[in-house]
Amino acid sequence: MEANLTAQNILSVSINTIIFDIVLARRYYSEHEETYEEFTNRYVKFFENVDEQFELQRGLNNCFAYDLVPDVAICEAALRAARRIDDYATAVRVFEALKLKVDKPSQYEDYLQALKPVMDELGVQTKEELGF
Fold first, then answer.
1. How would residue 32 be classed by pLDDT, with cut points 50, 70 and 90?
2. Which of 1, 27, 57, 80 is the most buried (most CB within 10 A)?
3. At 83, is the secondary structure helix, strand, or coil?
């Protein structure tokens, strides 16, 4: 009976240690919230290194899943990545995602205006410009 209690105590201490480590790790990671600038830099860097369609689409899905509208720099990097890997359809979809993500149509127009030089350089059009 005493041997079982000892084994049970050891198990209890091990479980408590694991739980403490998990709580401590969560607390550590939640103390630092990523700033908008850090978020932007992270995704710009990500899209600069994309070399296949799956990575590009995964990155866009992750980026647009946040409760914010990505910066123009992120959109530009994503457009350049799409054209670099010859994925025109995904480049067009960047604008569709932006249109759904912004609060007001005027914000979407601001993005289009800011991205116009890149769109012209890369030969990318919006879905509306393509006639859809």
1. confident
2. 80
3. helix
Q: pTM (2 decimals)?
A: 0.75
Please, are residues 124 and 79 in contact by the beta-carbon 8 Å criterion? Answer: yes
- How far from each other are the two terminal CA atoms of the chain, in whole angstroms? 77
Torsion of CA 122, 84, 100, 44, to 10 degrees: -110
- Rounded to whole angstroms, the Cα distance separating 107 from 99 reads 9
- Asked whether 99 and 69 are in contact (CB, 8 A), the reply is no
Q: Which amino acid is at 39?
A: F
Cβ 125 vs Cβ 92: under 8 Å: yes
- Is-contact 47 77, C-beta < 8 A? yes
